[in-house]
Amino acid sequence: MALKQISSNKCFGGLQKVFEHDSVELNCKMKFAIYLPPKAETEKCPALYWLSGLTCTEQNFISKSGFHQAASEHGLVVIAPDTSPRGCNIKGEDDSWDFGTGAGFYVDATEDPWKTNYRMYSYVTEELPQLVNANFPVDPQRMSIFGHSMGGHGALICALKNPGKYKSVSAFAPICNPVLCAWGKKAFGGYLGTDQSKWKAYDATHLVKSYPGSQLDILIDQGKDDQFLSDGQLLPDNFIAACTEKKVPVVFRLQEGYDHSYYFIATFITDHIRHHAKYLNA
Predict the structure, then answer these.
(1) What Pfam families would the database entry show (predicted)?
(2) I need a labelling partner for 215 at 20 to 30 A (CA). Which of 5, 29, 115, 179 fits?
(3) Out of 65, 226, 272, 276, which one is annotated catalytic?
(4) Is there a catalytic annotation at residue 206?
């Protein structure tokens, strides 16, 4: 599959690049960002996938999080895809900020008119890794995933639905129990239909209850002054309770004074890179 390079910038000895390609899963052109650390010039490196939140593109993380120095030091290739298909000309896709464009929610839609394009789950777990593995110096056996908000939800469900596929997972302010929050109900109702039993397949709190899998240490950072926490959109307590019940290890850090922004992410991103490097470079 042909890759078209959009940009390339040297950063901490490595290269931050953006590519465009025709996606089979999403039936449109997609962009993704990829950081190649200096180590990638001479050997295959682990791959760490970042999933962004509502309204974001591949640009937010690479321009605001400050992840590059830690990724360079630990020798991690970091990949950040867009958050939804773009320009599919579906009626209503640009009507609201929390559904449609920029809000793919990392599910495979089953409902018309979304099911032809809105297949972000399969894109993130299958198509994009295959593309990256075929075109860049990464070790397919060493892969991890993390994300923010809607992308934190995405990271958790990708890891929980695929035991053993990812060496580690972490999240910033993830939407932990989407079947019970307004964002999740809107997105899942639109993409997956009215049968709420089908929603549970993309809900981290429900998935962890039946997680059969290999050891998975989860790291979550949550800002205590996050408006979406107090609004009941994130519901981390439900996820923590489910993890505790299933004896799935989770480190949950409630960070005093921090909000939902990239200032919060930038503050703790090095901790997350280190968390993943521990497993990816083991």
Answers:
(1) Esterase
(2) 179
(3) 226
(4) no
User: CB-based burial of residue 164 (10 Å sphere; 0-12 exposed, 13-18 middle, 19+ buried)?
Assistant: exposed
User: What's the rounded Cα separation, in Å, for the pair 205 and 29?
Assistant: 32
Which is the catalytic residue, given 149, 206, 221, 275? Answer: 149
pTM to 2 decimals? 0.98
Separation between Cα atoms, residue 63 and residue 53, nearest integer Å? 14
Cβ-count burial 54-75 (b if 16+ within 10 Å, e if not): bebbbebbbeebbbbebbbbbb
Pair of tokens at residue 182: 């307004």
Is 70 exceeded by the pLDDT of residue 1?
no
- The active-site residue, picked from 68, 153, 206, 260, is 260
DSSP-based three-state secondary structure for 254? strand
pLDDT in tens, 136-174: 999 999 999 999 999 999 999 999 999 999 999 999 999
When the pLDDT of each residue in the chain is averaged and rounded to a whole number, the result is: 97
Residue 155 is classified by DSSP as H
Return d(Cα 21, Cα 126) in angstroms, integer.
Answer: 15
Q: CA-CA distance, 141 to 167, in Å (whole number)? A: 9
**Alpha helix segments (H runs only) across the chain:** 59-64, 68-74, 120-122, 128-135, 150-161, 182-192, 204-209, 227-230, 236-246, 262-280
Task: Compute CA 104 distance to the chain's CA centroid, rounded to the nearest angstrom.
Answer: 11
Question: Among the listed ranges 6-20, 67-81, 207-221, which one has the minimum average pLDDT value?
Answer: 207-221
Task: Give the position of tokens 């489910």.
Answer: 242
DSSP state letter for 137: S
- Integer Cα distance of 78 and 136 in angstroms: 11
Residue type, 261: S
